[in-house]
Structure formats: C-alpha cells, structure tokens
Amino acid sequence: MSPLEKSRLVICIKAIMGLMARSFMKYILDGKEQTAKQLLHDIDETKKQIKFKMLEGDLLELYKNMVLAVHVETKGGVDFITWTVEYELINPNNPHPISVLNWTIEFTKDVEAHIFG
C-alpha cells in the first residue's frame, strides 16, 4: 500500500492570518500509524513553495524540531519537486529521518500517478 493510500492526510486545516494554516494528519511511517500537528507557513504560490513546521506529534519524540519544505520548479515544461527536511536530533543516538525522506519520495510518486494516471 502506498503512502498516499495509507495516509489520512490533512484531516483538518484551519487558516490563520492569510498565508499560514494549521493541519492535523495521520500517516503510516515505518509500519506504524503516527500523527502530526503542523504549521503551514511560507506559502508562496509564485515561488511554488510551502513549509510544514511540526508542532506536535510522533516525530517530535526523536527530533527537537522539524520543518519539511516542498518547492516546485518548472524547467522546459517539466516540474521538478524538491523536498527539504530541516531537523535537530534530541539525542545524538536517534536516527536521522531517512524514513521521512523515503515517505516524501513515495508520496510524491503517488501524487504524480494520481494526477497523471
């Protein structure tokens, strides 16, 4: 099952001051259902980018803070998606968020397949 199928993505989005919003989502990561409350900010339609700052949830048990950013750039009629994960480990023995990167890759593939069939 793909991340898109396994995710109950943004269950609730509440707009805050125009260019920010809060979201709550449930998703599967490493075979476990997890939750996240996020602040969506730096939303820029012209630059085609958005950032998701984790406010609460399972990932903050491992990371002091985490921000996921997605940016779409069009070159020669082709869209390129760049995901960036900014994080700080709570404990140096905690794993780096490779599973989060894998999730974003699979999620992006699923969205692309859904849109383009």
TrEMBL record:
GO terms for biological process: defense response. Transmembrane segments: none annotated. Residues 15-116 form the Bet v I/Major latex protein domain. Pfam families: Bet_v_1. This is Kirola. It comes from Sesamum angolense.
